[in-house]
Structures are given as structure tokens and as C-alpha cells.
Batch of 2 targets.
Target 1
Amino acid sequence: MEDQRFGLSRRVTLPGPLRLDGGAMLAPVEIAYETYGTLAPDGGNAILICHALTGDQHVASFHPRTGKPGWWTRLVGPDKPIDPARDFVVCANVLGSCMGSSGPASIDPSTGQPYAMRFPVITVRDMVRAQAMLLDHLGVATLKAVVGGSMGGMQALSWPATFPDRVRACVVIASTARHTAQNIAFHEVGRQAIMADPKWRGGDYYGHDDPPAAGLSVARMAAHITYLSEAGLTEKFGRKLQAREAKGFGFDADFQVESYLRHQGLSFVDRFDANSYLYITRAMDYFDLAEEHGGLLANAFRRTDARFCLVSFDTDWLYPTIESRHIVHALNAAGRAATFVELSSPYGHDAFLLDAPEMNRVVDGFLKGGR
Amino acid sequence: MEDQRFGLSRRVTLPGPLRLDGGAMLAPVEIAYETYGTLAPDGGNAILICHALTGDQHVASFHPRTGKPGWWTRLVGPDKPIDPARDFVVCANVLGSCMGSSGPASIDPSTGQPYAMRFPVITVRDMVRAQAMLLDHLGVATLKAVVGGSMGGMQALSWPATFPDRVRACVVIASTARHTAQNIAFHEVGRQAIMADPKWRGGDYYGHDDPPAAGLSVARMAAHITYLSEAGLTEKFGRKLQAREAKGFGFDADFQVESYLRHQGLSFVDRFDANSYLYITRAMDYFDLAEEHGGLLANAFRRTDARFCLVSFDTDWLYPTIESRHIVHALNAAGRAATFVELSSPYGHDAFLLDAPEMNRVVDGFLKGGR
């Protein structure tokens, strides 16, 4: 029972091939995932959780490398809106990532070497297709719900659009149906920071035990600013100085916000692969659900009967409320059932990962309202 | 007369020493500057223009390196609110910069080598003190007005606070009285990007003809995003692709906004020194006019009789309108005459450099309303 409580960490090699949006065929397709709870005999209790850009499959169990608790234990766990005592919870590392699923650090069977930049460029829809292959493997025909925040919300949106008959409910938190020019711009800064690091070596750094940590760290710092609100940063740090009492008149981290950001950058490189960062940001930048459906977002939702729940946060300037409204308008136009709430939080985009009792109530009520 | 029309580009070596906020003594103090027009016999027509982070003294005349017109010809020139036919216009390259004034690329007289990171850390107030030394040299006792946008606005604000009797009017556009945590965070990303570039060599790159262009370029890209509004980026680029019709499924610049940003980064390194970028961003991060005056911003304005004009732009999220409001409240508390207008523009922070007829009208009216 201990195993069940902390999730079953597994990895499956699916034969593939998986035809990707870019045209390439990927085989084999390795997927690392965790499950919590037990699939009901009628298969009706499966919930897929989709993770964000730098997330992982350890949604409600300790991360094996960092030892930290799962990233969404506030939402998934005993007596939580998603409860393994009732639900069969699946969370898979996305395609292109570096926590066990196929990505640029995986071995290319045609060469016996890591793919590096020879890994094919993927899309959010490709991630979803790989998840569907995993569900086939697990014997899950239809999802009770697919749930995700940020890039996880993009996958959640893409699910009913790609597999209209396989999902009954869709929860999209702090997300968007397409990346804006500003979203792309921030990601491009991160990619250029990585590629500018000579240790990146065109992506072929795996054999050198000396990854492009400096570039990846800068990329993470730039991205991290977009995850926080200006007000949240001011509340948490303001212009507070480090331990010293007066300004140092040098270039060490003088302000607390500087050392915080540096720490965010440095700790990130211990747990993430730079090439995966390139591939996943690219997939997010390519994401435009309307474009995939003839330029009209409503078209993405015409073939499904799924119910939708949208949640945004008022201080999220990465994927602001207006983006959720666009989705709701399209759902309305397509005649779909849609719940939408904008929640108040000082924490910006990151709010979906933090203590948000209102979010829990919304998700709980929405999931219980299902068939 | 041609010379007058296009400004007189000059450089002066002031003996100093200049005592800096950080405690160091700087000598000599070299200041590169331009003047337009003629100082009136009573000395009453001098206007000092202060430039922004990466700006220069060529406010209304062609840049000698890029060949581009002056950066504020919309505001300064014949029949403009600041007109050399009436006003004696002075614009100096700020201390710490790289267009001829003393900065990290200057020769340290004690070693005969460039200062590099041995240049003392400076503040906005130090920039203002150096400008005052230049005005002494030019025989300007009192300024009719000091005018600046962005970091130029910080200098403009610092002028009456530092030299209360030497300035009669102060125009502060798209600026702030202190850098917020988010402002500092973005600058720290830029500094880390530069310092992560191995070609930075701890700042001692001047002898190698191979500056840290990649790091400086990333720094500029990150900063550039903060100069534009999300709406402006969407209007200009949206998700438009480059010349090719379909996504490239690679890591070349696929979206127009990517190649635009890359161009911004690459063209910047031709005209700016990486160490100067470190020093000037540091000065901006240190800027907190209230802190310099006992923690109360109003105190900064109690000893001057200057009139103030504040202009903000509604889509400027770098120095949003609320920052100008803080300044106006402090001016009110100090009993100073203050005009404040928030202008509407789609262009974000950059609006102050672009065509803004309303801004011109506000500045024109304010300057004409003076004694």
C-alpha cells in the first residue's frame, strides 16, 4: 500500500512509430509516468494530469532526484479534488522532456548516440498523442477528465480537440489556446541564452559532463520573472538588500530579488536538460489551437461532448485572463458546456501551483458535477 | 551654421575629482556632449536633456557611428517644443557609458589600462553631479529645464533633489522614482547573461577584439521585451511567420518576432559596451530617490522651487503610470507645482521615443508656461 500511496513510478517503451506534426516518425516512444489509485472495472475513473514546461510525472509523490513533494499535492491526494481513493490518476512526463520520456537526451536507435538536436521538433499535440498511446497501454479508453495548468492546460485543451471521444471533462488552468508574440519573445530569449553558451556545443554536450549550465540558468531566470506578478515580487522582495545593511557598490547580488533569481537559475540546471528546454519551449511557441483547426478556435471543440472548466488568475500576465476568455467564447460558439472563473491571487502565473483553496473548490465542484 | 544645426559634438576633460556615492573619487572626469543653439547673455535659456540607458548625447543630430538621426528629433529641433533657435540645449553622455564619457572602457590613469570592472560603481546622482560639472564648464548656472525619459527621467528627478537652486523646471517622461523588484530582476537577467559569456573575461575583454557579444545580445533581447507592450507586439508581429509559409520545425527564427528580437540583440552589440551595460543597469537598480532622502520621497522636493511635469503612457509596464502617480503625490506633499498626464499609446515604454504629438503638446505647453 505504501507504493500506491506514493505513486507507482514506471516507464514504458511503446513500439510506435508515432507520426509527429513535423512529419517525422518517432520510434520507439518511451514514456515515464506515475499512476495513483486503481482503474475501476468499467474504466470510468481515469484522470490524466498534464504537467507544465519544466514539470514532471511526480504530481503527487516525492521527486526522486530533489526529494521534494509532488508538484500538485494541493490538488491531488487523499481528500483532495482528485483523490486516488476514487480516481485512477495518470501523470506522464511529456514527450521531449528529460524525466524518462523520449527527448533530445534519449538514445537515437539509428546511431546509438543521444539524439541531441537531431531529435525531431515536437508539438503540444504530439505530446497528447504520446499520452494517448500510454492510455492505450494502460487500458484506459476514455478519460473522466484531463487536467492541466500552464502548458498542462494547453495539453488539456488539445485532448478533446485531438481525441474528441476519449475525454469527458477538461480542466484548463492559467493557460492559453495560443502563444502570443510576447510569449514567444520571452522563450526566444531563453533559447538564445542557451545557444549562446559555448558549452551547448550545438546540442552535443551529453558526452562532456559539462552542460550549458550558465545559459540554461539565464533562460530560467528570464522565464521565472514571467511566472511572478510585479506586486508579488514587490511584496516578497521589494528593494530589500541582502544580509549586508548598505548597498555593496559592486556586482554581487545586492538585492534579495537578485540572489533569489540566481538561486532559481542555478537550482534549475541540476534538474533539467538544456536541449529539452529548447524543444518544449518550441512546442509551446508553436501552439495555436485555432490554427490547427482552420483558423477558428471554435472548430477545435465542435466534435467533442466534453465539459470544460477554465480558471485564470487576475495577476497572471503570462497567460492573462483575456486568453481564457477567448477560449470560453470559442466554447460558447461551439455549443460546449463551459465554466469559467477568474480567481484573485497576488502570485501571478505561479498561483496555480500554490495554495489556492478557491481553485480547489472550483475543480472539485466541476469534477463532481460530471456524469 | 551647419555645425550649429547639427549640434556641436564635444568632449571635455574635467579635472575632478568627483566624489561618488559609493565613496570613490573619480579623476579625471571626461564628458562627451553636444550643444545646440546659443546660451543667452543672461544664461536663462539652457535646457539639459538626459538620455536613457543605452542612449547618447546625439539627441538631435546624426549619430556618428550608426548614421541615424538623433534619438529625440521629435521633441528637439526647429519648431519643436525644445528649439535651438530659442533654447541652448545640452545633452551629455552619462557617466559610465561608452560614447565618450568616463566609463569602464576608459583608461584608468593609475594603470594606463582600461578600468573594466575596476571602474567605480556609479549612481544616477553621480551622473547628475557630472552633468553639473559640465554645466559649470559651460557657464550655465541655472537650467531653464531638465528633461528626460526613462533613465533620463530619473536624472531629471534627481536634478532638483541634488541641486535645488540650479533648475527651474523638470520634465519626467515614462520614468520612476525607484526601481522595483521586477525592474531589478530584468536587469539582473541581463547582467547574468553578459557575465555568463566566457568572452566577458571578468570584464577584461578590451584587448581581445572579441567582446561578449552573445551575452550582451541576450541581455538586450530580454530588456527589449520590457520596452514594448504585449498589445504592440501582437499588433506588429502576432504569430506571423518569417518568409516561409509554414512552420520550419526547427530552431531557426520561425516567427517574425524572433528574428526581430535577434536583430535587436545583434545590432545593439555594435554600438554598446557590455561593461557599460553592467554599470548603468546597476545605477538604475540602485535608484531610489526616497531612500536618498530619509525614506520619504517628498523630502527630495522640499528644497527646490522647480515646477514639474510628469508624463506616463498607459501601456508602459516597465515604469507604469502608478510610478508617476507616486511622484506626483510626493510633489503635492512637498507643495510643488506639478502637471501630470497619462497618455494613451499602443507602444509601451518605447512610446516616449516614438511619434507622440500629445507628449509634444504637453511638454511645449509646460515649458512655455515657465517664467
Target 2
Amino acid sequence: MPMIPERGFPEAEYAMRTAKAQAAMARDGLAGLLLTTEPEMRYFSGFHTLFWQSPTRPWFLFVPATGKPVAVIPEIGAELMRGTWIEDIRTWSAPAPEDDGITLLTELLAPHARGEVVGLLKGHETHLRMPLNDYERLLAGLGGLRIADATGLIRDLRMVKSEAEIEKIGHACAIASRSFARLPEIAAEGQPLEDVFRAFRREMLGQGADDIPYLVGGADRGGYHDVISPPSRRPLARGDILMLDTGSTWDGYFCDFDRNWAIGSADDASRRAYDVLWRATEAGLAAARPGATCRDIFKAMQGVIAEMDSQGGDVGRLGHGLGMQLTEWPSHAAWDTTEIVENMVLTLEPSLGYGDGRIMVHEENIVVRKGGAQLLTERAAPELPII
Amino acid sequence: MPMIPERGFPEAEYAMRTAKAQAAMARDGLAGLLLTTEPEMRYFSGFHTLFWQSPTRPWFLFVPATGKPVAVIPEIGAELMRGTWIEDIRTWSAPAPEDDGITLLTELLAPHARGEVVGLLKGHETHLRMPLNDYERLLAGLGGLRIADATGLIRDLRMVKSEAEIEKIGHACAIASRSFARLPEIAAEGQPLEDVFRAFRREMLGQGADDIPYLVGGADRGGYHDVISPPSRRPLARGDILMLDTGSTWDGYFCDFDRNWAIGSADDASRRAYDVLWRATEAGLAAARPGATCRDIFKAMQGVIAEMDSQGGDVGRLGHGLGMQLTEWPSHAAWDTTEIVENMVLTLEPSLGYGDGRIMVHEENIVVRKGGAQLLTERAAPELPII
């Protein structure tokens, strides 16, 4: 069993993230950043809890132009927040539909409401996690405040991981790799797919995962048809192609990859699809170097996929960023010209449609180093494994 | 082992939900409802997937004044959506930052952009799950469209559960009740809290849970200090009070309750806090009858809590609704005058602060019937159990 990394981050990591954000804010003319979503609050404060599962209460973190971030949060989170590096913690008794933090936020932002600009996440892959009514009320009460989209700023920061972050993602990947290796002992012909899922979740916890927020997959004769479904009660049958795709976490960081197996025997089309995707991943591994773009990685994989693809199974891209969220910027797609830089953590996720509406997906997780892609996952077998 | 309910719902359930929504829309003068969040999309369509873990793609469901809802979704979800009762499914190749469904939505909503009103969730406990830039662009392209807050309408529908929903929540509660009953065999002095969490997750999966999206708790000498933390590596020690609070799911429906134990021996203050909260729950059970209000339930519990509470541990309310989300409307709080009606599923969650910053929370789940509260959870022991 490999070494288990330290949990959490030293305070210096949060100080560095904040300093980098503040340098970018100065460049972009932002007086502050107002953040409402879990990954961003955790990124700058270290505030880590599953309590975000409850949609009831909004949470706010404000990154000023200088100094530590300020937390404006429900009182129920005060004790946990006091354990982070944040010092200025302002709380209210939430939920309070009439004033869920709006007075506190208004006080905090009022000094900037004389024409200054505050950044907010408004762009791709983001949302505003507070009631829209409250947001409109907040702005109405801060007449002179200008809002700018800070998605690019946050995206640039979060896309490049620290060594400590890479270690956590690598640990999550190692746990899932060990679990996938045990799958032939867990799954068998005749077992309902739902039971395979449940057994695999237990295996991952046993291997050290904290949580399995994401587990999808499919199994069907000669290939699966869908890659985002919950499991059915249909028993695995000889000739099925089985796929499991997991986003399990360790210390709040995700892995995100899948594996494919044939039950009993494999049909020729599925074996060929597997081979094409395995080689497409190889092409992606070779292309994922500093200085390349996401489009380059996409094209490298697509060039191999084109040997077989019938243009079914449009999943929109061939991989993405990975970290505190199951999927993060950037996207391996023709439209994404993001430059690949060292210490990006990425998935390579080639997929293709074949036969009568069947789809196959492969996925690996990598970190980009100076010399190129370094696998964080145990590479899938080069030929479709048979259980 | 009790009977396992059927998964999913008959089409008639979705038709009934839609008909009720449409009756309320007619009452409120709404030409449609535009929904962007997972529970609402699932409520009206049956579209059920963990793929929402990925923040990358927006998903839309439009409930028109008459007829079935219309899905405007990424192509990756088309196959799964075709398995629901929805017929009009419009897809695009997502992600597509330049046009993530906006053209499709604009076409769909254009007929209403001549002064008609479309409902959107803008109120308490809601958020808009799409990039704010895209929302602003959508509205700008539909000059004559008026938006109204439909939170009240959706809240009224979702607060009252069908028998099929109650059965699923009851099943989730039964799974967690059996798992909590096994805790004394799982947890022991000397065991790090993190390992207790992991073993408890495995137990819940073994008892039949699909997933455990929420597990928090605490353990400390003479009482815990925080109720939303992830677990530490600190070993359980004699004199600790241990609390676990879980929101585990079955077929997409949550339970949400906790249990408390003392390790080895219990201090007097914790035993007294436990007794007060157990009796506060009894008062809540007696008060949760059709015709009462959430405020009545709050006051009934608060009256008992007042025997001891030092006003620490402000969690803002003493329970809430429960269903497709860990926490739903309404809130047992002085400000919530929602009338309790039959087939509401609720938590009773009295808490109090005591000693030097310690907090204790109890929680049970109930369904409100004609005659009053019916427990869905196996009632907690009347005295603090010792492991």
C-alpha cells in the first residue's frame, strides 16, 4: 500500500493562492472577488465540509485586493471556519429568508460601491450559488458597484495544480486503480449491475477512498448504450461489455476514469473499438506536452478515433481538467485553444460510437510535466480484458 | 430484511406532478416554468443521473402551460432522457461555451416573449444552475419575456410527497436505522474517527444504500464541538461523545438523521443534554400534526430545549423538509409559518449548546399523517447509549 499523503494544506498554500489571485486582480482592475461556490471557497480558505449538500444556506467568501479573504457565512459553519487560516469571519443565524447574509455582504462591499469593480464567476462551467432574488437585491442596494466576470482569472489559477494537490489527486487515482484491478473478483456473470456498483463502492472505501460521489457505467450485450445511467437490476450476461466510470475522492480531490471489461467473451466490434480507443489514448498521452493546446490533444485522439467512429455517442469533448471537481476547465475539444502548461491535471477520455447505437469510452488521468504526460492512473490493459 | 420498493415511478406520477404544476401556473398567470436544477428536472421528467456532479454542462427543462415538459439538454443525456416519459427532447453538442443551449432555449421561449411571464426559481433555498452570463444573454435575446419567481409554486408541490416518494424515503431511513444499530460493532475506543466513517459507509452500502452523499459527525471528550466537519484521525477515547449524521440515498431519495453514543462512559452534562433533546423530539412528534405550523413545531421543541440551552450552537432551525434533497423546505423556525399538511416528510432536529462550547444534535425523520407524526426512523434510545 503506498504512502498516504498529509491531509489539508499548509497555510502557505492558501497564502500563495491568494497572492496569485490578488496579482491577477490588480492586473484586471478588480477591487475584490465575491465567491459563492464550494470549490472556490475551499480553494482560498480550506473550508471543507459535506454540508454543501444542503441547498438551504448561502456561503460567501470575499477576496480583497490585499490581505486575507473574508468569510461571510452561516453561524453553523463558524467553528469549522475558525480552524482555517481565515481570521475575519462574519456570521448570521441562517437560514433567514429575509436576510440571508445580504446585510453583512452589503456592509462588506459598500466601500467598493463607488465605481469599483468586483469579480464574480459568471462564465462557462460556473454558476451563482445563492438565490437569484438575493443577488438582485444585493446589487440594487449597492448602486455604484460594478460586477465583472472573473471566470478567466479563477480558471487560470485552478487549472494549474500545486504538488500537494497533485499528490492528493494521484492518491485518489491509486485507490481507484487498485479497486478496478479487483473488479474481476467482484463482478461475475449473473450478478445484477446494481450489485456490481454497490460492491465496487465498498471496495473503493476499503482501498481508502473517502467518498464515491460519482459512479456510472453500463453493461449490455456487445456494448453499452449509455454512459451516465444509474445501474439497472439486469444481471451481467455472457457477451456483455461492462464499463464503470468513477469519480471517487480523497481529501476533497477527485480521480475520474473508467475501465471496460467483457463478460465471458468479447465480440469483434467491441474488441476493435477497445483497441482504437487504447491507441487514441496513447496519441493523447504523446500530445499532452507543455506548449501544446487542448485542441492539439483533441486532434491527436480524434485522428485515431476516426478509423472507426460512426459519429454516434456525442459526448462533446475527449477529456477535461480534474481536481476539486469531477470535471474542471479546460476541455479537449476543437474549440478550446487553452495552452497546456506544467502541472495541469487532465483526463484523456476518447470515446466512439459503433454498431447499433453502442458507445465505448476510455479514460486515464495525467499530470503534465516538463517532459510530457505522466500517468496518475494504472494504464488500462492494451486489450479488452475478459472476466 | 423488509421489502425493497420498486425503483422509479409510473408515468402517471409525472403526469400528476405536471398537471398540478400547470394548474398552479394557470392560477399564477405563468406561461411556463424554466427549470435548471437537478431535483426539479428529475421531479418532472424522471431524469436521474449522477452526471450532475460535473459542473460543465447546463441542463434545462421547460414545463409549458399544457402538455408534457420539453427537455433542452446536452446530447450526452439524450439516451437516458429517451427512457423517461419526455417526448420533446432537443439536444446540442455540449460543452459549447459559445452557445450552450442558448439558441435552443431562445427558440423555445420566443413565442412567450410577447409580454408573457415565465416562472424561474429565484427564491429561498434555490439557485440558477447555468452560467450567469448565459442567463443575461438569454434574457437580452428575449426582450419581451417577463420572468417571475416560481419558488412558492415548486415549494408547495414538492413539500407534499406521494406515497411512492414516502416509500423510498422510508426505505432509505430503514437502511440507515439498521446501520446505526450496528454501530457498536463497528466503532470502538482507539479507532480513528476517519476509520469509523469509512466503516459506517461500507455498512450502509451493505445494508442496501445506493450512495452516502452526506456523512458528518464529531467525537470529543465530554461532547463534540462541531456538526459539519469531515472526520479527523483522532482515535475515539473513553469519555468521548460520538455523533454521526447521515444523508444516504435510495433511488434518489434521502434520509437525514443522526445518532449519539458515549464511548466507555458518559459525563452527566452529556447525559442530561441527551435527555433534554430526546424529550424535545417527543414534543416535536406530538406537535407535528396537520393544521399546525412549522413555528408550532419549533416552539414545542424549543420549550423543552430551554431547560438547558446556553444559546450556543446556533444551527438556525430545528428541522426541515426532506426528499430528493438532504434538506428541503420548510424550516422548523420561528419565522416559518408554513402549515403542516398530510404527507409532508420532515426532520425533527433539536439541538443545544452546553458546557464549554459543546453542542448536541438529535434527529428523526417523520411523515405527517392524518393522525399525526409517523416515524420513518427507528427511534433513538431514550438514554445516551454507551459503547
